[in-house]
């Protein structure tokens, strides 16, 4: 019977004209069947069946129903895909037991079917996803091949008219200058490649036909040697093939959610990444070893520019002068401009190294690949032993991206109360995890006045407060009792640290709000602000900290895809809900 494979039913009518008989017959199967498989509802059906007849109906969730049994002494086979059960009624109480047995069997069968179906559905979804990724990849490659073929033919026989060239140069200039506000559903990488090197053609990527010769000098300085890419949101509503990022529409008087915000974001390179910045956890020999290997391998892959930090370059050069092709950022100015020169960032270390990498990019940040060489590795999902395969796939694209939102934090000093010179300390930070305000060495209760978009929220009296991004929800905020939030959920977490109150629950606020935490002028204790666990600064009475969502997220490349990576980390790194599985019920079935 087809309806058995549908998984969920309600037994609606075990009826009798007599109320007492009805109670009996309803009570018995109710006790013996599994409550999560069946819902029993009392519904008195027609009198005509008499006291010993128990017709019942199995009803689909969708409202269709099917009669299993009717009449006083009859049996009927219920069969579905090899799963079956015999329902038999007899005179006396025996029929009730058999009926309950039968229901129990059906319940078990349904449960098995439901489990198998869920597995099959999950597997099918995975295959569909792989297929779609493959389609995307081959479409992209085809497009690139076609572009290259067109380019070849134009080079060979059809010299470009100057007007064509100028138009293209204008478009290029416009596209470079308009990268800060991308169109809905599609973010463009920050610039076009300046050089047209041979390796681009070897890998089959689109090359810039004009060698960017027509960019003006100023633009040339800004653009330098960057690869370009697009970020697209998978359309959720495939029927409409919408690529936009609108959340809500208002059509013919009805407000409806058009496209959900939590979508997979895909990175597609338009030209291959040519400049890679490798960041290493300090004081780790295995990390340095891997860095050396990786540098040579990247060179073999025709990566033109490899950057490391000055201390790493010094270490490599000490070992061999063969490493003199490696570049570094010697000055603060070069470091400030690093985003303009780097296509991809690689971190070798733990979560702290990823936080460190993010802290170096005080504006837009290129895609980041984090190899796990730390102890916890919540955000570092790539296995270092598989770096060749992983990097090859990422540099070829497409790859899924988690846009990890950062918080912009600004300290506003009350000059009249500042106790010490803070002018040399930065007043603005971009944090990937959180900003925390604690009571430092003071043993007095902290006293923090909090406002959200100018509205008073509360006064934190306790050890302090954590204002966290969704990515930071699994770090300090988690330790303080905050909720675990998927990194793509747009929000700001407001988590107190050891509040001296029974009712101070953590909050999650929308991403568009601006928070202000202020120290009262007459506060007793101290307050210290830390930014991703670093850059501690003391705050005095009247000082304020302003926190809002930054427009510069960290685009972290996913190992599989955003939710899969996150849930694996929650389970494997945090051991979330780890508990021995309860043994299955092995007792024989004894009805009362
Ligand atoms: N009580 C606490 O749990 C506590 C106290 C202070 C700082 N921290 C966290 O440490 C972070 C700094 O990290 P670090 O490596 O530079 O310092 P660290 O070396 O002290 O390591 C802190 C630990 O937190 C883990 N971690 C960092 N970010 C994470 C994230 N987003 N999700 C899950 N785990 C994460 C790291 O893997 C590491 O094991 C801070 O941003 C803060 O969130 C936590
Ligand atoms: N390139 C870097 N320069 C300076 N400090 C760094 C750098 N990379 C990492 N750190 C710092 O080194 C510390 C340890 O790094 P990391 O957290 O990556 O290693 P771990 O503690 O072994 O790994 P995990 O975070 O998985 O436990 C962190 O505090 C981090 O801020």
UniProtKB/TrEMBL annotation:
<keyword id="KW-0418">Kinase</keyword>
<dbReference type="GO" id="GO:0005524">
    <property type="term" value="F:ATP binding"/>
</dbReference>
<keyword id="KW-0808">Transferase</keyword>
<comment type="similarity">
    <text>Belongs to the NAD kinase family.</text>
</comment>
<dbReference type="InterPro" id="IPR017438">
    <property type="entry name" value="ATP-NAD_kinase_N"/>
</dbReference>
<feature type="compositionally biased region" description="Polar residues">
    <location>
        <begin position="175"/>
        <end position="201"/>
    </location>
</feature>
<dbReference type="InterPro" id="IPR017437">
    <property type="entry name" value="ATP-NAD_kinase_PpnK-typ_C"/>
</dbReference>
<feature type="region of interest" description="Disordered">
    <location>
        <begin position="60"/>
        <end position="83"/>
    </location>
</feature>
<dbReference type="Pfam" id="PF01513">
    <property type="entry name" value="NAD_kinase"/>
</dbReference>
<dbReference type="Pfam" id="PF20143">
    <property type="entry name" value="NAD_kinase_C"/>
</dbReference>
<dbReference type="GO" id="GO:0003951">
    <property type="term" value="F:NAD+ kinase activity"/>
</dbReference>
<feature type="region of interest" description="Disordered">
    <location>
        <begin position="175"/>
        <end position="202"/>
    </location>
</feature>
<dbReference type="GO" id="GO:0019674">
    <property type="term" value="P:NAD+ metabolic process"/>
</dbReference>
<keyword id="KW-0067">ATP-binding</keyword>
<dbReference type="GO" id="GO:0006741">
    <property type="term" value="P:NADP+ biosynthetic process"/>
</dbReference>
<keyword id="KW-0521">NADP</keyword>
<keyword id="KW-0547">Nucleotide-binding</keyword>
<dbReference type="InterPro" id="IPR016064">
    <property type="entry name" value="NAD/diacylglycerol_kinase_sf"/>
</dbReference>
<protein>
    <recommendedName>
        <fullName>NAD(+) kinase</fullName>
        <ecNumber>2.7.1.23</ecNumber>
    </recommendedName>
</protein>
<dbReference type="InterPro" id="IPR002504">
    <property type="entry name" value="NADK"/>
</dbReference>
<keyword id="KW-0520">NAD</keyword>
């Amino acid at each position: 019977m087809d309806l058995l494979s549908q998984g969920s039913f309600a037994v609606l009518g075990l009826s009798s004209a007599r109320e007492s008989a009805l109670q009996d017959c309803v009570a018995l199967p109710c006790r013996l069947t599994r409550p999560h498989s069946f819902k029993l509802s009392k519904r008195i059906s027609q009198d005509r069946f008499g006291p010993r007849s128990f017709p019942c109906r199995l009803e689909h969730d969708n409202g269709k129903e099917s009669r299993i049994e009717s009449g006083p002494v009859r049996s009927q086979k219920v069969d579905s895909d090899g799963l079956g059960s015999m329902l038999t009624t007899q005179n006396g109480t025996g029929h009730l037991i058999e009926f309950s047995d039968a229901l129990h069997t059906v319940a078990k069968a349904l449960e098995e079917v439901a489990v198998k179906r869920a597995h099959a559905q999950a597997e099918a979804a995975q295959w569909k996803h792989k297929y779609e990724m493959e389609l995307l990849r081959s479409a992209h490659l085809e497009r690139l091949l076609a572009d290259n073929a067109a380019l070849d033919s134009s080079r060979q026989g059809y010299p470009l008219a100057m007007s064509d060239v100028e138009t293209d140069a204008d478009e290029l200039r416009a596209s470079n200058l308009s990268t800060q506000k991308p169109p809905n559903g599609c973010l463009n990488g920050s610039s076009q490649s300046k050089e047209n090197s041979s390796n681009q053609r070897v890998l089959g990527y689109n090359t810039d036909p004009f060698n960017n010769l027509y960019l003006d000098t100023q633009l040339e300085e800004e653009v330098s040697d960057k690869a370009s890419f697009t970020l697209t949101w998978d359309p959720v509503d495939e029927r409409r093939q919408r690529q936009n990022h609108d959340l809500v529409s208002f059509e013919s008087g009805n407000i409806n959610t058009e496209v959900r915000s939590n979508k997979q974001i895909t990175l597609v390179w338009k030209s291959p990444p040519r400049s890679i910045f490798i960041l290493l956890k300090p004081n780790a020999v295995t990390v340095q070893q891997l860095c050396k290997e990786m540098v040579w391998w990247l060179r073999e892959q025709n990566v033109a520019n490899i950057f490391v930090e000055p201390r790493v370059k010094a270490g490599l050069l000490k070992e061999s002068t063969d490493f003199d092709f490696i570049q570094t950022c010697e000055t603060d100015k070069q470091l400030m401009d690093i985003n303009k020169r780097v296509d991809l960032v690689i971190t070798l270390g733990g979560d702290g190294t990823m936080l460190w990498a993010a802290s170096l990019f005080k504006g837009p940040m290129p895609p980041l690949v984090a190899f796990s060489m730390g102890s916890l590795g919540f955000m570092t999902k790539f296995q270092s032993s598989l770096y060749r395969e992983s990097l090859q796939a990422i540099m070829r694209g497409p790859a899924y991206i988690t846009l990890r939102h950062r918080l912009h934090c600004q300290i506003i000093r009350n000059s009249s109360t500042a106790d010490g010179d803070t002018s040399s300390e930065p007043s603005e930070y971009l944090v990937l995890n959180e900003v925390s305000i604690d009571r430092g060495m003071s043993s007095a209760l902290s006293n923090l006045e909090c406002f959200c978009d100018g509205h008073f929220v509360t006064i934190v009296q306790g050890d302090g407060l954590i204002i966290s991004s969704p990515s930071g929800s699994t770090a300090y905020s988690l330790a303080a009792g905050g909720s675990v939030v998927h990194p793509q959920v747009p929000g700001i977490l407001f988590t107190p640290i050891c509040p001296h109150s029974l009712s101070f629950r953590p909050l999650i606020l929308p991403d568009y709000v601006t928070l202000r935490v202020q120290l009262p002028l007459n506060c007793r204790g101290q307050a210290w602000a830390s930014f991703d666990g670093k850059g501690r600064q003391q705050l005095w009475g009247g000082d304020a900290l302003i926190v809002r969502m930054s427009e510069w997220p960290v685009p972290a490349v996913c190992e599989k895809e955003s939710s899969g990576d996150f849930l694996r980390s929650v389970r494997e790194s945090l051991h979330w809900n780890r508990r021995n599985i309860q043994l299955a019920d092995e007792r024989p079935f004894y009805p009362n």
